[in-house]
Amino acid sequence: MSGTFLGTPAFPTAARTALGDSQLRRNLAHATGTIRTKRAGVVGEVDEWEQLRLAGAAIKERVLRHLPDYLEQLERSLTAAGATVHWARDAAEANAIVVGIAQRHGTDEVVKVKSMATQEIELNEALEAAGIHAWETDLAELIVQLGDDLPSHILVPAIHRNRAEIREIFLREMGRAGKAAPEDLTDEPKQLAAAARAHLREKFLRAKVAVSGANFAVAETGTLTVVESEGNGRMCLTLPEVLVSVVGIEKVLPTFEDLDVMLQLLPRSSTGERMNPYTSTWTGVTPGDGPQEVHVVLLDNGRTDVLADPTGRQALRCIRCSACLNVCPVYERTGGHAYGSVYPGPIGAILTPQLRGVGSDPQTDSLPYASSLCGACFEVCPVRIDIPEVLVHLRGEVVDAHKKASRLPSVQDVAMKAASWTLSSAARTERAARAAGFGGKLAARVARRDPGGRTVLGAVPGPAGAWSDSRDVPVPAEESFRSWWERTDGGRSRTSDSDSDGGRS
Amino acid sequence: MPRVGLMVTCLNDTLFPDTGKAVVTLLRRLGVDVGFPAAQTCCGQPMVNTGYFDEATPLVRNHLDAFAGYDAVIAPSGSCAGSVRHQHGLVAERSGDPGLVRAVADAPPVYELSEYLIDVLGTVDVGAYFPHRVTYHPTCHSLRMLGVGDRPTRLLTAVRGLTLLDLPGATECCGFGGTFAVKNAETSIAMGNDKARHVRETGAEVLVAGDNSCLMHVGGLLSRQRSGLRVMHLAEVLAQTEPVISDAGRAADRRSVGSAGVSA
Ligand code: SF4
């Protein structure tokens, strides 16, 4: 993958591309719809799902409260088991560590099991810059890499591609990167998978160094875990001589029992399966079996900043199941690329601004607003991250950062201040409402009545245009509720016979 | 007799006063003495949801003052009831004023209309009559922020003459989302158009919901499409009763007068 998200425009603009691409919208609606139904089915089978969610959230909260302790414990366990532990404050440090390890072993290629952490730090690009090819071995990740594309989903990075597109990419690109796809390749999923398998097998058997992430790291024992569906991860974790795992510091769990809870929550939430096909765990080095040199890079890269925010820190509970993406109506229509980050969808909208910090980049600052706050994400999140709460909180941070940074208030600042001033007093509100009612009277002359009896305006110029381009605009009532109440004593005095019957007839 | 305050909401006050009048009619019919504290304005949700916590603080104070002394607050809006229930605490905390935090905690409970009817009054059949094909959109804040569940549809099912039709993809957001509809207008419209399409698929004459904000959005699209569908607030449906002959005559009169000066 050579592209990066750098330079992605702010969300509303980036979304426009996806909204205009009807094929993409169909692909996404179909894929997310399918996973959504599957997930709902298997979650429905678990009677104590809510208890399980609470348990998952509680475990992660405990970890976050005592993060330094658990990390030190993890380091001790890992070291005792023969692994080498590295600490990386940011992407540059982490990349330098991995590149250094590969170079020490004189290799010009590494195989990779799909890992969000290494995507986040853009490890592939760093390796490439050092002349080392990183081969993604996850099927979807391979499609993205060969297509010189960017991932658009946490779990299914190539969710935006359909079968026909995948076939084309394989035919065109596989030969350049290794074993070519058979010429008679069709777009049958089975055939596509077989082509990928043959292409990757060659790489697994040749690679000396593998790079992975980890879904969980058990502090008590120093055990890392990767869960996956295809078995490619297991090949990466067992065949090469050297294994480097880049692990976000929030991935630590206290004990194996905690892992039990997570392994029930994760597959159901992510792929809609009762158990994922491959769960690999490894603890340091086992002489004569698997990689004989094991490195673990513990990555901060903004995570301690997130931890410092009492409201926002719940984002660190995330187990990257992608359930929130699959239910998000905004994600479904805009796709993942519009978020300009390896973490798209609702979790991306809260995690990315926190990792990057708000107030300096318009693209990042647009993310907390990329939601209608419908709450579907919170409803499905297996570790109960209240994403809408964090979104609103981050909007506050964005606004405060901008107020602090510029001496001149923005149009929005002024509007909100004025609205606040008007609306904090009933008298002022009433005067404004009268003015609106007057405007309503004027507007009513050019308005039409919709079939429900509400008076509406068609397309209007000016700031209301963003609304009225596609939606008719309601006209303010000629008499506000409060003036009606005052005039008629709450409908008790019949000054007008049309006032006391409530709704329209 | 408990003192019940109607929180009409700023949107209903200025744009949809009929919804407020319907709530008054309905509650009176059910024997509730409902008051309208004139000091009320806006609950502050538009500010909070746009990130303007400081600007929301005086509105939260005003809300608390306006409804002090009432035993309960009723709002014909899941969104605004949800905002009072879940956001006023956040605003208070962020303001750093412990007095405000306490005041929010001690404020009278706020109910969305369907919650009040079923949970407090214990009424499902409110004596309404509405002989039309209706479909119901459970707005996100009613559904998820408040968790009103099937209360609104239970109320609608008990309305005489009413046929309730299933809405495909009912729980999916209509795309309004307050300032989202303006800040991300294109995505909002894409969502709203899907909702409008589902509504039309039902063959209903009337789309009903518990939030006029969402109805304004979906209704605006339906109206632009000249779909012929009406949108109505739940309260307006529940306030309808079987017409008495003389009243019906008057109503017909008024309708023709009402639409006189309007180019349809
Ligand atoms: S935020 Fe929750 S639902 Fe979304 S990916 Fe993370 S764990 Fe899954």
TrEMBL record, chain A:
Keyword S-adenosyl-L-methionine: no
GO molecular function, a single term: 4 iron, 4 sulfur cluster binding
Sequence segments annotated as region (Disordered): 452-505
One Gene Ontology term from the biological process aspect of the record: lactate metabolic process
Biased segments, Basic and acidic residues type: 479-505
Pfam families: Fer4_8, LUD_dom
Swiss-Prot/TrEMBL keywords: 4Fe-4S, Electron transport, Iron, Iron-sulfur, Metal-binding, Repeat, Transport
Domain LUD, chain residue ranges per copy: 71-299
Residues annotated as domain 4Fe-4S ferredoxin-type: 315-385
Protein name: Lactate utilization protein B
Organism, scientific name: Pseudonocardia autotrophica
Gene from which this protein is expressed: lutB
TrEMBL record, chain B:
The protein's name: Lactate utilization protein A
An annotated GO cellular component: cytosol
Matching InterPro entries: Cys_rich_dom (IPR004017)
GO molecular function annotations of the record: oxidoreductase activity
Limits of the Cysteine-rich domain: 6-84, 134-218
Top-rank taxon: Bacteria
